[in-house]
């Protein structure tokens, strides 16, 4: 199908970015190289980065501006050479120590110098902390002491700080981190990122639910039998043992990405399309999730760890992982939401590393019709109507409904209608980080997490982390690397095929 044929009129909210200096701490790291800088480059190519903007990489690694630009030449997606060169001219590198005031003095001088180059107005600063979160309370106070976080009364030019997840390790540490950060920053300056919110399909949930009349009447316990949310990865932990050993999958994926997807699917309609109205509804939803039971936790929550299988190493054989590590690399859970809309509808969530394949999706399974007139086919024999929102690797949507199969006989079966975002975008896919970086530079917090939501999600999961510390509680179930996860997860529900 031709691209344009999909759309029957569309409306775009166009916002132009103002000139900005984006400072990336941890610029030598994996996130900066693999995700952030390619995303910024794509914004530049799409003319979504203001022409007077600059990017300053900061880290301890021994680069200078020339060698950092050279590194990026090998990393950035191929494009017109002149375009790449023009972009690289906007890139700068400052080597420094995160705790050394002198580094921030030099950074301040650099920002001032760049600000005078071509901009007619004072530049906004966006600081991206792409470092381990243990450094946030080193970097932010130093930025503040150097006067780099100061905004005027109305917040212009702005000073935004983007922080990566996980935000804290549990309720107490997240609260402490939050309190400390608020000594230096106002909430409107803090951008807690969850890159799943930048994915097309996840954003589309709001439009699907709230810009169509056909879904809302059936989006509740009367019509929905269950919701399954999966974020499965084929990769193991790679070289991230240092981080993952102390995080584990519950902190890495559940407390943030999984809960955000759940709240987009299940929240009530906000009064308006604004950052706070949407986040208010998410907060209400997360607070309505029934706390996990203190007894028999394993009946609703299964944790697993991948074991060696075939050529694939087990988690305990990965570089940097303790031989007897009990860190979970898989979690499956059944959640219930105590409100009128969702009373009794189970939400099944699973996420894991080293699974059969990479697949993230949200599957909504509808109830069977109350009575079948197509005897002898009974209502319960029919394939349930299912709406699947595919998050990755393909971004799209499919709806399976009962339909007559063509032919003279009466044959009925599940018919799948499907669409794929990449086809709409002419095969080009948009990285979640593009959208989120743009929003951070535009001052739009809608897709960023507010501190009360972080607190509510830790309140849900901290008791689980505490229960897991008790050796009597909840076995860690081993699963073969490359499989669908521990068989114990099947106790919760009959999952969709991975
Ligand atoms: P890296 O381990 O690659 O660290 C980033 C940089 O931080 C390093 O290059 C290093 O730069 C600096 N650093 C400073 N102190 C330390 C330290 N004690 N240990 C390790 N590095 C240090 O991490 P990532 O880039 O993978 O992740 C950065 C943040 O982004 C983390 O919070 C992570 O959870 C989050 N994240 C990462 C994703 C990814 O795909 N990588 C995806 C989503 C979130 P130098 O030594 O030069 O100063
Ligand atoms: C990150 C986690 O937040 O998300 C990683 O720290 C995980 O462990 C990654 O691999 C998954 O992101 P995506 O976009 O590849 O699904």
Keywords for this structure?
single chain, 498 residues, 15 strands, 32% helix, binds 6-O-phosphono-beta-D-glucopyranose
Coarse morphology: globular
Percent of residues in β-strands: 15-25%
Number of strands: 15
What is the strand arrangement across the widest sheet? Answer: 14-13-12-11-7-10-9-8-15
Secondary structure: elements and pairs:
Elements: E1 20-25, H1 30-45, E2 54-59, H2 65-75, H3 81-88, E3 91-95, H4 101-117, E4 124-129, H5 136-145, E5 159-163, H6 171-181, E6 190-192, H7 200-210, E7 224-232, H8 241-266, H9 275-287, E8 301-307, E9 330-335, E10 347-352, E11 359-366, E12 386-392, E13 396-404, E14 412-420, H10 421-424, H11 432-442, H12 451-469, E15 476-480
Parallel strand pairs: 1-2, 1-4, 2-3, 4-5, 5-6, 7-10, 8-15
Antiparallel strand pairs: 7-11, 8-9, 9-10, 11-12, 12-13, 13-14
Helix pairs in contact: 1-11, 6-12, 8-9, 8-12, 9-12
Bound molecules: NADPH dihydro-nicotinamide-adenine-dinucleotide phosphate and 6-O-phosphono-beta-D-glucopyranose.
6-O-phosphono-beta-D-glucopyranose is lined by residues 165, 195, 233, 252, 360, 392.
């Amino acid at each position: 199908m031709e691209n344009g044929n999909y759309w029957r009129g569309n409306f775009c909210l166009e916002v132009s970015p103002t000139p900005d200096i984006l400072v990336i701490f941890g610029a030598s790291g994996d996130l900066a190289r693999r995700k952030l800088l390619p995303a910024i480059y794509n914004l530049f190519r799409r003319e979504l980065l203001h022409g007077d903007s600059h990017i300053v990489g900061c880290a301890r690694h021994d680069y200078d501006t020339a060698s950092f630009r050279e590194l990026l030449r090998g990393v950035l997606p191929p494009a017109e050479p002149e375009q790449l060169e023009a972009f690289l001219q906007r890139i700068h590198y400052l080597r420094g120590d995160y705790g050394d005031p002198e580094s921030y003095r030099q950074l301040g001088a650099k920002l001032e110098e760049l600000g005078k180059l071509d901009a007619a107005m004072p530049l906004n600063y966006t600081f991206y902390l792409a470092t381990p979160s243990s450094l946030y309370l080193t970097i932010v106070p130093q930025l503040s002491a150097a006067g780099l976080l100061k905004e005027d009364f109305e917040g212009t030019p702005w000073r935004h700080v983007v922080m990566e997840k996980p935000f804290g390790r549990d309720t107490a540490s997240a609260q402490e981190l939050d309190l400390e950060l608020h000594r230096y920053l106002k909430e409107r300056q803090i951008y807690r990122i969850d890159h799943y919110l930048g994915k097309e399909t996840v954003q589309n949930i709001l439009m699907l639910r709230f810009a169509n009349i056909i879904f809302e009447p059936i989006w509740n316990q009367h019509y929905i039998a269950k919701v399954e949310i999966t974020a499965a990865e084929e990769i193991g932990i790679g070289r991230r043992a240092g981080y993952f050993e102390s995080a584990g999958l519950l902190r890495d994926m559940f407390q943030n990405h999984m809960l955000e997807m759940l709240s987009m699917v299940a929240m009530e309609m906000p009064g308006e399309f604004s950052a706070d109205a949407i986040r208010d509804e998410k907060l209400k939803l997360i607070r309505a999730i029934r706390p996990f039971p203190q007894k028999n936790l394993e009946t609703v929550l299964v944790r697993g760890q991948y074991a060696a299988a075939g050529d694939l190493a087990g988690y305990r054989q990965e570089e940097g992982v303790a031989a007897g590590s009990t860190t979970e690399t898989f979690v499956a859970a059944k959640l219930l939401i105590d409100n009128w809309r969702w009373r009794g509808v189970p939400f099944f969530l699973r996420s894991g590393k080293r699974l059969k394949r990479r697949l993230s999706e949200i599957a909504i399974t509808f109830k069977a019709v109350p009575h079948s007139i197509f005897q002898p086919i009974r209502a319960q024999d029919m394939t349930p109507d299912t709406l699947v929102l595919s998050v990755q690797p393909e971004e799209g949507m499919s709806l399976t409904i009962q339909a007559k199969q063509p032919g003279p006989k009466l044959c009925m079966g599940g018919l799948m209608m499907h669409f794929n975002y990449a086809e709409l975008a002419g095969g080009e896919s948009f990285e979640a980080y593009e959208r989120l970086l743009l929003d951070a530079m535009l001052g739009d917090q809608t897709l960023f997490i507010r501190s009360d939501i972080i607190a509510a999600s830790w309140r849900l999961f901290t008791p689980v982390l505490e229960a897991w510390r008790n050796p009597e509680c909840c076995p860690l179930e081993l699963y073969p690397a490359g499989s669908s996860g521990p068989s114990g997860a099947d106790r919760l529900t009959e999952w969709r095929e991975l």
